[in-house]
Fold:
Amino acid sequence: MSVAVVLPGGGARGAYEVGALSTMLPALQARGERVSIWCGTSVGAINAASLASLADLAADEQAQHAVALWERLRKQDVMAPIVGSGGARMLLRLIGHTLGVPGVGLASLLDPSPLAESLDRWIDWQRLEHNITTGHVDAVCVVATLLSTGKPVGFVAGDRDVPSHSGNEIRYVKTRLRGEHVCASAAIPVLFPTVEVKVPRASRGHYTDGGTRLNSPIKPAVDLGADKVIVIGFEPFGPAPERPAAERRQPSIADVAANVLDGLLVDQVGDDLRRVAAINSFFVENHSTGPIGSPRTYRIARGLAPYRPISYALVAPRRRGEIGRLAETTFQHRYGGVRGIRNVDFGVMARALGAAHRSRGELLSFLLFDEQFIRALIEMGKRDARRWLRRHPKFWCRDAEHDLWTEQIDRERIKEQHAIDEFRANRMLRARS
Structure:
C-alpha cells in the first residue's frame, strides 16, 4: 500500500501544512506506515520537495526540521521589499508598460527573486535524489500551469514511470526536480512573474502557479499509485454554506480577488475529494461494495485501469475563514496604526487591499510572512491534525458521510447513468475489434 501526501497552494498558509504534518507523520509511522509519494502545488510544492528531501529521517525528526524552517522564514526570504528599490523598479516597469516602451513590461506586482535562492537553502536537491535512489521516496510531483496551453503539468521525480493516461486533465513529465520547477509551481498570477522552465527540453516554456488549474493534486497522487492519501486543506472540506447577502458597500479589490481565490484554491479541493468519496462509495470493485460493471467496461474501453478504493486522512480548519480571521487579527495586533512602522511593506499591502474586512484577511493570509502568524498557523495545523486522529483512531477513513458531509446520492439515477455508460463503452469495444 502506497501512502501519498497532497499539499495545496496558499502562500504563507504553508505553515499550516507543516504544523498538521508534524502531528500526522509520527502518528502514521507509529502504525508502521510511511509516506512514499509527495505531491504539491505552489507552497505545497515547496513543502513536498522539502519533506521528501528529509524522508530518510524518522518522522518526528523530519517534521521538526520542516517546522524549524518555517519558524525561521521571513518575508525577505520570499519577496523583495515593496518600499524602496523594489517598489521603485515596479513603478518604472508600470510607467514603461503604460507608455508602451519596447522591452519594458509589468511582469508582476511583487518581486519573488529571493525565493529562488531560498529554495536552495531549504531543499537539499542531492539528498532528494538520494532518497529516491535508496527507496525512501517513490515519487515527488509538483504541479505548474503551462502558460501557452493553460494546462497543468506535473513534474515528477522518481523511479516509477510517469502515468501515460492523463488525458486532457494533466500532462506528466519525468525530470530531476530543481528550483525552477518549484518556482514555476509557486508563480502566483499577477503577484509573481511567470517562470521559464528549461529542463526537460520537451517541456520548455513559461509557467505560472499550478493552483490556477490543479491546486490540490489528488489526481497525480492516485495516478502515481497511491492507495491512501493525506490531504491538507485551508478550509473545511464539506460543501460551502450559502453566503449572506453582500453588504451595501463598494466592493474592493480584496473582495474580487478573494472570490477568485476561493474558486481556484478552495472549491476545487472539495470537489476532488467528493469525487474520491463517490468512487469509494459506488464505483470501486471490492468485497464490500461489489463491482459495478459499467464503470469497469467504460474505463477498460478507454485504456484505463478499473477504479480502486482510496483511503484518506483529511486535516483542515473546522470553520470557514478561520485562517483569514487569524491573519487579520495578527495584522491588527502587529501592524495596526502606528505599529505599521515595524514593517512598512505589510502596511502598504493592507492599505492597497482596503479596509479591514473578511476578504482582506483572506488575502493577507497568503502574504503575511510574519513570525507570529506563522507560529499560530503551525499550532492551528497541529490542533486540527489531533482532532482528525481523535475522530479516527485507526487513522484512515473511506466514509464520505463521516467527514465530507456528502448529500444523499440518487442510486436509481446512478444506475441509469451507468447503463448509458455501459452501452457507450460496449460500442467503443466493438468498434476497436
